[in-house]
Design a protein that fits this description.
Helices cover about 90% and strands about 0% of the residues. It starts with a helix and ends with a helix.
Amino acid sequence: MDKFIEKRVLQEANHIIKTKDTIRKTAESFNVSKSTIHNDLKNKLKKIDQSLANEISLIFKNHDENKHIRGGEATKNKYKKR
């Protein structure tokens, strides 16, 4: 794997661990697509650092379990603004 890609994957992983950001927010922060972040952290990170991949997996699982709450809050705020 290219050193540039490896460095990017580790930066993305550390960013998510530090901030608990979603894939979408992380993609915006790194100016790459959501697909890139997803591929980096679901596939490439396992080859680089398995323990870090496990930690990211737990964060993503938590995001998945709570996405309906975030969606409801976003909708609520959208209609509050009107």
